[in-house]
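Researcher: Re-running this chain for the archive, since the previous output was lost when a drive failed. Same request as before.
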Amino acid sequence: MKIERLAAVFKALSEETRLKILYLLEKKPLCVCEIMGALNITQTKASRHLIYLKNAGLLASKKEDRWVLYAIREDLSEDVKKILERTHALMEKTGDLAEIETRLEEILKHESVYRQIHGVGDKTAVSSRFSCG
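Model: Regenerated structure tokens:
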């Protein structure tokens, strides 16, 4: 792995909201409105951080119906996967994520209804694991 690539990964991980987004994306595919709801942030903030993570090479996107899906890329190097796995484990140890997980569980109970009510249009992003494409 080149040093520039490693620096991009660590820069992407250096912001709290991006860490939380990656944490959520480890769980399942999510749209921007679901990320917004789980993290209690604006659409602009969620989209800005998703774009940052995608530009850092950590996420891929895919259109599904009206929604754009964002996912942690499956084709990441083993080294980057290990960094993300360790980061995820460290975040779980903090104990600060219970509220986020509770909100996400509530949102996902009625996922399709939630997307229709809270969706931000055709540019809404959803996340899942898949290769870049």
